[in-house]
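Long-time lurker, finally posting.

We've been working with non-specific serine/threonine protein kinase (Periconia macrospinosa) and I want a structural starting point before designing mutants. I don't trust myself to interpret raw outputs, so I'm hoping someone here can both generate the structure tokens and explain anything notable. Sequence follows.
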Amino acid sequence: MAKADIEVQQPMHMHPEDFEEEDPEEVLDESADPLEESGHTVDSSDDEIDESVAEDMARFEESFVGIGKRYRLINRIGEGTFSTVYKAEDLEYNNYDNRWDVDERERRKWSSPSGRKRGSRRPHYVAIKKIYVTSSPIRIFNELELLRDLKNGDSVCPLITAFRHQDQVVAILPYYHHHDFRDYYRDMTISEMRLYMKSLFTALRAVHQNKILHRDVKPTNFLYNPQHSRGVLVDFGLAEREGTDWHKCVCTESLEERRYQVAHSVYMQNQQAGHQTTSYPKNDTRNSRRANRAGTRGFRAPEVLLKCTQQNTSIDMWSAGVILLTLLTRRFPFFHSADDIDALLEITTIFGRKKMRETAFLHGQVFETNVPSYSEHGHTLEKIILWCTGRTSSDKGAPKKELSDEEKEAVAFLYRLLECDSAKRITADEALHHPFITKSYEENEADQDMVDLVAA
Ligand SMILES: Nc1ncnc2c1ncn2[C@@H]1O[C@H](COP(=O)(O)OP(=O)(O)O)[C@@H](O)[C@H]1O
Ligand SMILES: [Mg+2]
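Top reply, 14 upvotes:
Generated this for you. Predicted structure of non-specific serine/threonine protein kinase:
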């Protein structure tokens, strides 16, 4: 009985009337801490299961009627903000068409017919994502629908199928062997960073070509295997189609229009009335500005923090920039803010007040701070990397330490990602053509030549 892949094998019974209106404030203020997700990988210790995990799995099998017949639960591999993920063996693998299985496809390409037969008896693994029942139906539906739309790329985790039992929904995904970011981010060479970023941009290009914003790009949502230099983007729980809930933001208007709007703002009226620049109107009758701010603290682009109401796929490129900054500085998490204001100030520390005023102005906002320690022009990324990697000295006579040429190339690229003006930020497709990334092809060819020489 062959069945098409990525098809809901037992249709989920979801009807529009199931969708309850969510509290809009909750939807708009999705916030996760970068350290909240365990993101840990237990590939090497599948046999060592904690007692509490075993109990949790038994409870799940008991409550989700029938799941045990289809899948043998092996271990709990992740606990995110919105779900628990288990590794499981797919017991009915051979009854279905499994075009999603990249590893099997690769293996078949290279193995003999007898090897293929033997291979079909190998265990096949899946990841079962148990979405917390507190997630709204509309959000669960959104995640599954976007995953299904993105099913054809190898760099985005496809949806194999999904099941619902009462209020519990589970998504069945291919299982990806990957390493915990915390195990390798301190030791990556620049060449390895090129490969990591190339893999991430390949995934983002596929997502962005479909006009989808991932919204939560961060290491725990990019499952990377350093040995194969291959990564897969997961977790479309906060993703959305570009244009959803867009309202005009002045960032899409001309400079004149923007100037006009700021000139007629409450802030300007206050200033003209002789109030201090940092004063607030006593009776502010304006509606508060609302925009989708879903994402993870420390990875949000400035326009998200500034509540731009026309956010686009470039927000993911900023988050990718934060990952590269993390790799270059060897600091994780690099940003660690308590809230959005804190996050804006963290960015101000690097880019300075002037850049933040300009960025705020792009979105029709006014940026003011009375904290004296923020400098007007901020610091260069070169300096920040040197600081974070202990290459600065308070001894004035000591020789000046510099970044290596490769690091300088990385920094030039990083400036294109951490570009505060989203309209000027590099796109995923452009990033894949940037010399920092294309050099990985040259390096790969050089490696190949070495292998050929040895083989000759
Ligand atoms: N397909 C998969 N293969 C292997 N591990 C996975 C897979 N999907 C998720 N995980 C693990 O589970 C964690 C949480 O999954 P994720 O989809 O990010 O859920 P959440 O929405 O709760 O953050 C991931 O960080 C990862 O460690
Ligand atoms: Mg996640």
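Before you design anything, note these points.
Residues 1-30 have pLDDT under 50 and may be disordered.
The longest strand covers residues 71-79.
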